[in-house]
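task queued by scheduler; priority normal; single chain, no ligands, no partner chains; default sampling; output format set to structure tokens
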Amino acid sequence: MSFLNQIQKLLGEKQTSIKINSLHFKDYNSPKKPMRFCEAAVSSLHSPLIIRKDDIDCLGAQRSFGFYRNDIKLATQISEESNIPLRFIFDALNEIPIINNPVKNIILGSTEKPDVTIAFVKPDKITQLILLYAAYFEEKPLITPYFFMSICGNIAVQTYKTNKICISFGCPESRKFGEVLEDEVIVGIPNSLLNY
């Protein structure tokens, strides 16, 4: 069985694709109201959509995709919601990547060749995924320990920028707005691996 077939079997059906700066953006509908990126990701499981700067209603996602950056405001908000010291949050933000080149649009659920695939996977599949990744590429995935910006920064952007499999255990927002179930882990797969 090929790598692609094995990985698709592990990822299951709950997955969506992301294309950044699509040239076919006119083929997709915008959300009816601004939403969080994790909310848009789960919405795209049912119907593809396009997101632009004004469609994202979340400081973390706006930062991740380079639309708007105010780390003080973001860190303060996270600290107030979680009671975690600001210093810890600023250190974490320094490790969570940002797309620096201009992002004009993000297509979720794209039918064109994606940049990243996001999957919501049962934990028992993660071990198999790690073994498969090591066997084919002699690499280990990036597993982020942060409890915020899990789908936008730690999965979508981290996978896009590093071209590696990334794994996140989710954050309160992704579990609430992105409908990540208690027994799911979020995985980002770069398109380059799906063409292997």
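post-processing summary
- The radius of gyration is 16 Å.
- Residues 3-194 form one domain.
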